[in-house]
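Students often ask why we bother encoding 3D structure as a string. The short answer is that it lets us treat folding as translation between two languages. Here is a chain of 155 residues written in the first language.
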Amino acid sequence: MRLEEITDDNREAVRALRVRRDQKRFVASVSRSLKDAAKTAEANPWYRAVYCGDEPAGFVMLSWKPPTGPFTGRYFLWRLLVDKRYQGRGIGRDALTQIADLVRADGGTELLTSYETGEGEPLPFYRKFGFEPTGEIYDGEIVLRLTLPQDAGDG
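And here it is in the second language, the structure alphabet:
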């Protein structure tokens, strides 16, 4: 599993990724996500395709330390989508692990995300990974935090 930039060569294949029907209310499509990124440059969107072998299997988008807004200077997992054909293989967990490593390498000490409540909500997935509720609500969604301890080194 690896994260790859979205280019003219893979854009249509990545845009074709779909979650299961019962998950659609919880995660926007790749097309919607790319439109949101384009119209909200102030959120400092950073996005990648999640590849499994030679095929795109998912999509991830962060708001990477935006200079303004409700998450100023913080890392916010804006979208995480694993195509229905690839779910249940640990790809979401692996992508989240890579993202957490990238944020930590950039000096980040936490990664935030949010979710909408309801039947089939993604909370169990995030809790299993280590996210905890912050007590904040953003845009009607519950905000979660993953603490990213920095390596202590040899000291």
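Translate back mentally: The domain at 2-147 is CATH 3.40.630.30 (Aminopeptidase). Keep this in mind for the problem set.
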